[in-house]
Amino acid sequence: MNRKLTIGISTGGGDCPGLNAVIRGATRAAILRHGWRVLGIADGFDGLIFPERTIELTLNNVSGILPRGGTILGTTNRGNPFHYVFPDGEKESDISPRILENARALGIDAIIVIGGDGTQAIALELHRKGLNVVGVPKTIDNDLLATDVTFGFDTALHTVTDAVDKIHTTAESHHRIMLVEVMGRSAGWIALEAGIAGGAHVILLPEIPFSVQKVCEFVEQRERAGKRFTIIVVAEGIQVPADMEQALANERRRSQRYGKANVVGEAISLVSRREVRVTVLGHIQRGGSPSPFDRILGTRFGVAAVDVIARGDFGKMVTLRGSHIGAVPIAEACRGVRLVDPEGELVHTARSIGISFGD
Ligand code: F6P
Fold it and tell me: Going by CATH, does the domain composed of 154-286 fall within 3.40.50.460?
């Protein structure tokens, strides 16, 4: 494709560090290599429902955004155009025709959609309806199929590891059992890798069923070895054992989400008769300046997405496999979620150095 194109860039789903690096990388490559026009679509696909929020991205307004967390374009993890609910509560199930029409009206030849599996699934449907789409995989959860790594994960790992390091000193001083709940949705990657990096003693994952009894036995074993504190990293997606479901239901009534570590912590305190404290890290994991790894990966993905558009190879998502940047059909990334393999090398490594999974 040699003619001067107009491309759109949109960021959808939960934000994460590195989004601005992709926006900057793609904008600079589109302008400097091809002389294309670049439009920033606001707030995920919402920006194609309300196109008046669109801005032109220039070398000037993407300048200085590389170290900034979040996304200058705004995002939303609601607003599926195939089941859209307007802000005033008015329902309109499928407004994709309006999206296609507005994209055409803006003169968009192709759009780079930066997002996780939910956003990529929507992008794929829009592609099937005629929009020229190229996907870029993002999420701190690192749970996308088809790519070894998503940008945002590395920065989140740094944040969580730093928190676990800090919890260590207070746990040790007070001789406490300390639980740290981390994000990851239904996958345990953040818990597993930050648990290993932060020297946790127990890691509870969605992929490995655990029991409070086993965790407490492990705590006792540590105490017999002279260790009077225990750090437990808990993935938000853990399957809470059946006998704790009522307690979980009560917790849900209190806090809606992210309460599982509170319930598990209470159970551990009751069974072990020891002092327990729980820290829920929450959205702090999605914030902050991207790590150098995420800045570089975001830039590589942004440039690769522009290369894919230049080849006219739509319906693809850029990927990192090994050290190679490539592109695969978006459908490949939407087949499911990449989970931790309980028999895999990382879990084996953790077990070999004495980390318990409570099983
Ligand atoms: O997918 C990213 C993520 O941060 C998950 O780890 C978490 O479960 C979810 O988003 C939180 O979403 P929200 O911002 O809607 O609370």
Answer: yes
Does the C-beta of 160 come closer than 6 Å to ligand 1?
A: no
Q: Where are the domains of the chain?
A: 6-151+290-333, 154-286
Tokens of 209: 């069923």
Q: Could you tell me the distance, in angstroms and rounded to a whole number, from the CA of residue 161 to the centre of ligand 1?
A: 18
- Ligand 1 pocket residue status of 142, Cβ below 6 Å: no
Q: Spell out the alpha helix ranges (H) of the chain.
A: 19-34, 46-49, 96-105, 117-128, 153-174, 189-197, 212-224, 245-255, 260-272, 292-311, 330-333, 345-352
pLDDT per residue as tens, the chain (359 positions): 558 999 999 999 999 999 999 999 999 999 999 999 999 999 999 999 999 999 999 999 999 999 999 999 999 988 899 998 887 777 778 999 999 999 999 999 999 999 999 999 999 999 999 999 999 999 999 999 999 999 999 999 999 999 999 999 999 999 999 999 999 999 999 999 999 999 999 999 999 999 999 999 999 999 999 999 999 999 999 998 887 777 677 776 666 555 799 999 999 999 999 999 999 999 999 999 999 999 999 999 999 999 999 999 999 999 999 999 999 999 999 999 999 999 999 999 999 999 999 99
Give me ligand 1 centre to Cα 32, in Å.
35
Question: Does residue 206 line the site of ligand 1, with CB under 6 A?
Answer: no
**Maximum alpha-carbon separation in the chain:** 73
CA of 237 to the centre of ligand 1 (A): 11
CA distance 188 to 124: 26
State the catalytic residue, choosing from 141, 143, 154, 307: 141
Residue 88 is a catalytic residue:
no
Fold of 6-151+290-333: Rossmann fold (3.40.50)
Q: Decide whether 6-151+290-333 matches 154-286 in CATH topology.
A: yes
Q: Could you tell me the pTM of the whole model?
A: 0.95
